[in-house]
Amino acid sequence: MKRLNQILHDQEYRSLIERIETLETDRLFCKHDVAHFLDVARIAYILNLQEKLGYDMEIIYTAAVLHDIGRAHHGEHAPVSADMALPLLQKYGYSPEETALIINSIRSHGKSGSHPFDDLIFRADKRSRLCFRCHEQQECYWPPGQKNENLLV
Questions:
Q1: Measuring CA to CA, which of 41, 58, 80, 132 is 20 to 30 A from 3?
Q2: Is 97 helix (H, G, I), strand (E, B) or coil?
Q3: 3-class SS at 130?
Q4: What angle do CA 23, 1, 40 make, to 5 degrees?
């Protein structure tokens, strides 16, 4: 987890997260902060273990903490997040294979991917939201069939 910790302490990464948190100060639901990223990471890792997918913990956590870093930009944030993640992955020594796996999962963010790793991160992201406890359910843009009405296990 050494490389991931380097990313989490990287000044550029920290600036991106601070910008997102500032922009979402008044957001009432589904904030995109480090707590959300780590929820996604933990859920993905649990699913990885339960389903015996065999992905490395650091790769899962890295994909999770980078998957929404483009949120501060207007428009679709998945390609921006992937573009912003690439130099961080290269800077901290992720292999080309690891980088491709992480970048592809970020690019497919928001939809179930054709690759099992993409799908793992997608499912964890969706399961991280506690819609059934949210006080802003009426304001949420997610249609009822996509909200997490119960605890998903």
A1: 80
A2: helix
A3: coil
A4: 45
DSSP-based three-state secondary structure for 151: coil
**What tokens appear for 130 in the block?**
């506690």
DSSP letters for 4-18: HHHHHH-HHHHHHHH
Identify whether the C-beta of residue 81 lies closer than 8 Å to the C-beta of residue 73. Answer: no
Q: Is 57 exposed, middle or buried (0-12, 13-18, 19+ CB in 10 A)?
A: middle
* Class of residue 7 by CB neighbours under 10 A (exposed 0-12, middle 13-18, buried 19+): buried
> pTM (2 decimals)?
0.85
CATH superfamily for domain 2-146? Hypothetical protein af1432 (1.10.3210.10)
Nearest-angstrom CA–CA distance, 14 and 153 = 31
- Report CA 138 to chain centroid distance, whole Å: 24
Task: Determine the pLDDT at residue 28.
Answer: 60
Token pair 């957001």 is at which residue? 27
Contact of 47 with 123, CB cutoff 8 Å: yes
Residue that has been written with the tokens 């589904």 in this structure = 30
